[in-house]
Amino acid sequence: MNRSDQPIEALLDEERLFPPPEECSRSANIADPDIYQRAAKDPEAYWAQAAESLEWMRKWDRVLDWNPPIAQWFVGGKLNVSVNCLDRHVRGWRRNKAAFIWEGEPGEERVLTFADLYREVNRFANAMKRLGVQKGDRVTIYMPMIPELPIALLACARIGAPHSVVFGGFSAESLRDRINDAQSKLVITADGSYRRGQIVPLKRNVDAALKDCPCVEKVVMVRRIGDAAPVAVDETRDVWWHRAVENVPAWCEPEPMDSEDPLFILYTSGTTAKPKGILHTTGGYILGASLTHKWVFDAKEEDVYWCSADIGWVTGHSYIVYGPLANGTTGVLYEGSPDWPDKDRWWAMVAKYGVNVFYTAPTAIRAVMKWGESYPAKHDLSTLRLLGSVGEPINPEAWMWYHEKIGQGRCPIVDTWWQTETGSIMISPLPGLTTTKPGSATFPLPGIDADVVDEAGNSVPLGGGGYLVLKSPWPSMARTIYGDPKRYEETYWQRFGKNVYFAGDGCKRDEEGYFWLLGRVDDVMNISGHRLSTMEVESALVDHQEVAEAAVIGKKDDIKGEAIAAFVTLKEGAEGNAGKVDELKKHVVRKIGPIARPQSVYFTAELPKTRSGKIMRRLLRDIAEGRALGDTTTLADATVVAKLKSQYEEG
Ligand code: 7RM
Q: Burial of 560 by CB count in 10 Å (0-12 exposed, 13-18 middle, 19+ buried)?
C-alpha cells in the first residue's frame, strides 16, 4: 500500500536532493559520519558510552541482557527520570532558564523555569504520596495541554508511580477501559479544556468512566476553566489540585528506580478491538528519548523548540516532556488548535517566541497547505532553522511545501519514523550529515539495525520492498504489553522469529539504501497521524442495537492521510437512511472519541467475504477509492462486491 500522492516507482525515482546546509553541518551536534560504523561494530559499547550522558544513582553492571525477545538494558543501574530532567539543571546555571513557555488557547501565557517546574513537581509528588500513591501504583492522567500535565508526568516519575496518559479526546468509555486495564489508583484530570473556543468537559467524562472503575481511590482535578465548567465533586474521592498541594513539603526525595522499573504505560491501537498498554521502562527509555532529541533536532542550549503534538500521544511523551527536558531545552507548550482564533495561530507563535525548531505531523502540514500560504507569510519565520515530521509517510508535495513556505528553503527537514513501541526515533536524517529526499525518512539512526524483509524473513536487496523489521534490541524498546506478555511476543516477535521486531509497516529501499515507508501492512489505520484499528471502530459500530455487521477501512484522504469509511449491514427491519448515518457516527464518537468518527457510512445487504468468512477489506478499499477491483477469486460470492460497487458509484 502506498499512501503517497505518487506511485512508489515515481517515489524511488525522486531526484531532488537536499544536502545539509553548510552552516548546519559545521555546527551540528553530530557531524562525524563514522558514528554509524562505530555503533554497528560494537553496539553495547556505543550505547554504554551514550548512557554516560545520564545521571545515575548507581552505575549499571551490564549494558544488555538479551534473552529474545526479552531485553534488559543497563542491568543493575539505578536512576530517576525526574532527576535527569530537573535536579541536574537546577543545580547549575539552568536554574532560571525557561523549561516551558506555555500558551493557553484563549491566549494566557505562562513561563516556567526549570526551578519553577522542579518546585511544582516536588510539591505534586508529595501531594500524590499524601493521597496514598506508592511506588509501583499506576496513575491515569486525562488532562489538557496545560503546565500541570508535564508536572503530573514528572511527579509520577519522581515517586516511581507509572503513569498512563489518556488523550483528552478519548471518550469516557475509552478512558474507563484504560483505567481498568492499568488498575490505576489515582486519576488526574481538569474541570475541562478549551478546543476551538469550546469547552470540553473532562471531569464529566471522568465521572462517567469511574462508575465502573472500582480500582480508583482518588481523583485530582485542576481548575482550568472555573465557573464555565462546573463540576460535581465527590467529597470522599475528588480533590482540587491547588488544595492537594497546600502545605506539602517543597522537597520530595526522588525514588531510586531500577533501570528496568516501569516509567509509563501508553495505550495504542493494534489489530484487535482492544488497545495495547505499551510499557516503557526507565533507563533505556530516557536514554533513547534524550539522545535522539539531541541529535535529530540538533538541540542547542539557546534553542526554542516546539513539538506541536499532544502529550497524550507518544510523540508528546518523548519529544515534549522527557527528551527535551533531559537536555535542558526550552520548549513551547500550546493548549489549543492551530486554526483558533485564526489559521495563523502557529505562525504567530513561532514569530512571538522565536521558535528555532518545529516538529509536527504531515496531516497538519497538509491542512496548513490547504489554508494557503498567506497565513505563514504574515509572520516572521526567520528564527526557524530545523523542521521535523512524524506520524505517517509525508508525501513529497507536502514535504516541498513545508520546506519552501515554512522553512523558506533554509531549514533541513527531518522525517522521523518511529512508533509508540520503539519509544524514540528509529529512522531519520541527521540534519548535519544526511542528504534528504522529499518523502523518505532516509536511514536508521546509529545503533538501529533496521532491514526490509520478504514474507520469509529474507533481507530484500536494495531497490525492493517488503516488511520493515528491527534486527537488534535498542534501549528505548517497549518491554511488554501491560498484563499481556504473550500478546507482546505474538504481535512483535513471532512473524520473523523471536530475534526480529516486526513493526507492522511496509517499506521500500531505493538503490542508495534510502528507506521509504509505505504505511501499515495490518488492519491498523492512520487517521491524521493517529493509530486506530479497524476492529476498534467495527466493534463500536456493532455495539449499536440496529447494526448486524460492520467493516471499516481507511480510505485515502488528502488531509488526514486516511479517513474512516464504514460499510454496515443493518439488522432485519432497520432502515439505512441519512438519520441512521448520523446516529452511527455519533455512536462511534461516544464509544471511542471524536478521532474515530467515520467520514462516510454505507449500508449494504452483505459484506464481501472469503469462503472462510474473512471480510475482504482490500476490496472495500478499492470500492471506496474508486479503483478497479483487485483479485476477487477468493470471494465466497462475487456478486456481493459487484452490487456494492455499483451502489457506491450511484452515490
Ligand atoms: C510516533 C508515532 C506509529 C505508526 C508507524 C507508521 C506511522 C510514524 C512515520 C510513519 C511513515 C514516518 N507513533 N509512522 N512516523 N510512517 N513515516 N515518519 O506516530 O505509535 O502512534 O504510530 O505511524 O505506520 O507504525 S504511533
A: buried
State the Cα–Cα distance between residues 645 and 625, nearest whole angstrom. 11
C-alpha 512 – ligand 1 centre gap (Å): 23
Rounded to whole angstroms, how far apart are CA atoms 161 and 164? 10
Span from the CA of 250 to the centroid of ligand 1 (angstroms)? 40
3-state secondary structure of 618: helix
Burial of 87 (0-12, 13-18, 19+ CB in 10 A): middle
Q: State CA 332 to chain mean position distance.
A: 18
In three-state secondary structure terms, 78 is strand
As for ligand 1, residues whose beta carbon falls within 6 Å of it are: 268, 313-315, 390-393, 415-420, 441, 503-505, 517, 519-520, 526, 531
Cβ neighbour number for residue 639 with a 10 Å cutoff: 10
- How much distance in Å is there from the Cα of 357 to the middle of ligand 1? 20
pTM exceeds 0.85, yes or no:
yes
Q: How many Cβ atoms are within 10 Å of 132's Cβ, its own excluded? A: 11
Tell me which residue has its CA closest to atom 6 in ligand 1: 392
DSSP β-bridge partners for residue 531: 526
Q: Mean pLDDT of residues grouped by 10 in the chain (651 residues)?
A: 52 85 95 96 98 98 98 98 99 98 98 98 98 98 98 99 97 97 98 95 98 98 96 98 98 98 96 92 99 98 98 98 99 97 98 98 95 97 98 94 98 98 98 97 98 97 96 98 98 97 96 95 92 93 93 94 95 94 97 96 89 83 87 83 84 66
Cα–Cα dist 384/332, whole Å:
14
Return the H-helix or E-strand segment holding 366. Answer: helix 362-371
